[in-house]
Specification:
Length: 235
């Protein structure tokens, strides 16, 4: 009686099925591609060699929409302005090479931490942050863990930040000096006058109606028009 094994045939069939499945799936980028250096090198062209001279606006968790709105009023730049929309992950786009990264919580968090670090590195002179509580800001978020320490660094690609001010998200006329590089003893009258001038627009922003003329001249604002859920790292 002639005997034979079906194992090789089954193995071959499994191999064919797996090959077809891999070929049908989108090509996923590895998280190792998206370093801080990658984000610095792949901003929108207009930001490639530009530092944010007293215009960088940060925010604590839950204030992304408020930050975008305030940035429009005060002429500032948020993290949502700096990269093409596809870099923030457009859900529902199956062929998006970020699909694997965004499907893994740890990789997704690392991706947006690196993006946030790159954004902070481009800040210069004065940085502004929106908080719900300017005296007790949350420090366990991307703001506290990544951006705030980077802003205090002695040197960054975009320059050096000397002052960080916190604005009340609900009443931006309320603010406090969150950090300054020199210490209060160095804040002589000339420095205080300069600082006040830099922040005058931030503390007394124009209304959106007042910006209609500017919008006609500039076209649309740069912020990516994506609404994110509360579980998004940049929410």
């Amino acid at each position: 009686m002639k005997s034979f094994s079906i194992l090789p045939a089954v193995a071959g069939l499994v191999c064919i099925v797996l090959t077809q499945r891999v070929a049908a799936d989108p090509t996923c980028d590895p998280i190792s591609k998206y370093t801080t250096e990658w984000f610095l090198a792949n901003t929108k062209p207009q930001y490639r060699t530009k530092s944010f001279d007293s215009s960088a606006l940060f925010y604590s968790s839950g204030l992304s929409d408020r930050a975008k709105q305030f940035a429009r009023q005060a002429g500032k730049v948020t993290i949502w302005d700096v990269w093409p929309c596809e870099n923030y992950w457009i859900k529902g786009t199956r062929a998006n090479p970020l699909s694997c990264i965004m499907g893994n919580y740890r990789d997704e968090m690392k991706y947006f931490e690196n993006m946030s670090r790159a954004f902070a590195m481009k800040a210069h002179k004065v940085a502004t942050v929106l908080h719900r509580d300017i005296y007790n800001p949350p420090m366990n978020t991307i703001w506290g863990r990544i951006e705030f320490p980077v802003l205090q660094a002695a040197e960054n690609p975009g320059g050096v930040v000397d002052y960080i001010t916190a604005l009340d998200a609900e009443d931006t006329a309320r603010w406090r000096m969150l950090w300054d590089r020199f210490g209060s003893s160095r804040l002589v009258e000339e420095t205080q006058a300069l600082y006040h001038m830099v922040h005058q627009r931030a503390m007394s922003p124009r209304s959106l109606q007042d910006l209609e003329g500017d919008i006609e001249k500039r076209g649309n604002f740069d912020a990516c028009p994506i609404s994110v859920d509360s579980d998004h790292p940049l929410y």
